[in-house]
Amino acid sequence: YDQLIARAADKFNLDHALIKAVIKAESNFNHRAVSPVGAQGLMQLMPKTASSLNVDDSFHPEKNIEGGARYLSYLLKTYKGNLSLALAAYNAGEKAVAKYNYNIPPYRETQNYVRRVLSFYRDYQRT
Predict the structure, then answer these.
(1) Distance of CA 112 to the CA centre of its chain
(2) Catalytic residues
(3) What is the pLDDT of residues 14-65, one digit of tens each?
């Protein structure tokens, strides 16, 4: 998926290593992944989020990566470049971040998710 990731990174001015880290944490590069709550594809887009991003097929790798990158870019702008908050919102939703005064919500899953993505991100930046 490296070429698709690179294209989306260029289009949305993101580090390709960040997109790759989110994909690793979300689906472990399985484009057919479905979470217990219904998130789909490589970047695990919820159907409602996918629809708002004009992603008509979350299992299509290129569409999913582009939609997820667009959403990640939006979240980074929303949280003024604060990567940890953007990742927390990607995982738990913007309302959860707002509910906890724009901090990472005290959900074990979300806190672990942010740590995992940041760890993968550092690893992918080195390669």
Answers:
(1) 14
(2) 26
(3) 999 999 999 999 999 999 999 999 999 999 999 999 999 999 999 999 999 9
